[in-house]
Write a structure and sequence with these properties.
- Keywords: DNA damage, DNA repair.
- By secondary structure, this protein is mostly helical.
- The protein is built from 12 helices and no strands.
- It has 2 domains: 83 residues, Endonuclease Iii, domain 2; 108 residues, Hypothetical protein, domain 2 (Endonuclease III, domain 1).
- 58% of the residues lie in helices and 0% in strands.
- Helix 2 packs antiparallel against helix 6 and helix 10 crosses helix 12.
- The longest helix is centred in the C-terminal third of the chain and has 21 residues.
Length: 205
């Protein structure tokens, strides 16, 4: 699949400048989607390092080695969850998710069988999960190959830099992304990598 995706994306002369076979990203379906969604809620609006610290604290609240079940999370006090370093809002969002999974409002196992838009529709019914979070689940945890999140500031910044656009021009940015179908998830991974390289260069300069 990488060969086809890479070949297709190189047809865009601008995007081609940042493509490299040295960084072939892995796409795989997460074994525990509940854990993945909780992790994405914790990571909302946070960089990787603080998000990982909070995730570790969260897991350490529970005695067993495996990730806690939705019922176990529901039984944990809000105060203890808050003490992990997350906001009260995120505590509520995680409890909302846990309740939805427990009462079968959302069937976690069925998500992998749905098409992309149906997955998004299912997830955004839960308060605290918006389209961006759902799209990240699709890319990083359901291994979907054709997702571009125009709501992601990093992606918009990278595209705006490459194509000399205003990053607030969502319509133009999304229109450009259509050239990368059906491999927009692959393009997204390269764009994030490109943005990271710009940040690193700025730090070193």
């Amino acid at each position: 699949m990488w060969v086809k995706a890479y070949s297709h994306l190189t047809k865009d002369p601008v995007l081609k400048k940042i493509l490299t076979k040295d960084h072939l990203f892995e796409f795989k379906v997460s074994k525990n989607l509940y854990e993945a969604i909780v992790g994405n809620i914790i990571g909302q609006q946070l960089s990787n390092k603080p998000a990982e610290i909070i995730k570790t604290r969260f897991r350490n609240l529970f005695s067993k080695k495996t990730f806690p079940s939705p019922k176990e999370v529901l039984n944990m006090s809000d105060e203890k969850l808050r003490a992990c370093g997350m906001s009260w809002a995120k505590v509520r969002y995680i409890k909302n998710l846990s309740q939805a999974v427990t009462d079968k409002t959302i069937d976690i196992k069925e998500l992998s069988l749905l098409d992309d838009e149906k997955v998004i529709e299912s997830l955004i019914k839960i308060k605290g999960i918006g389209r961006w979070t759902a799209e990240m689940i699709l890319i990083f945890h359901l291994a979907r190959e054709d997702v571009f999140s125009v709501g992601d500031l990093g992606l918009r910044t990278a595209v705006a830099k490459l194509y000399n656009l205003d990053r607030s021009d969502l319509k133009k940015i999304e229109k450009i992304s259509w050239n990368w179908k059906p491999y927009r998830s692959f393009a997204s991974r390269f764009l994030w990598k490109y943005l990271d390289s710009l940040k690193s260069a700025k730090t070193l300069s």
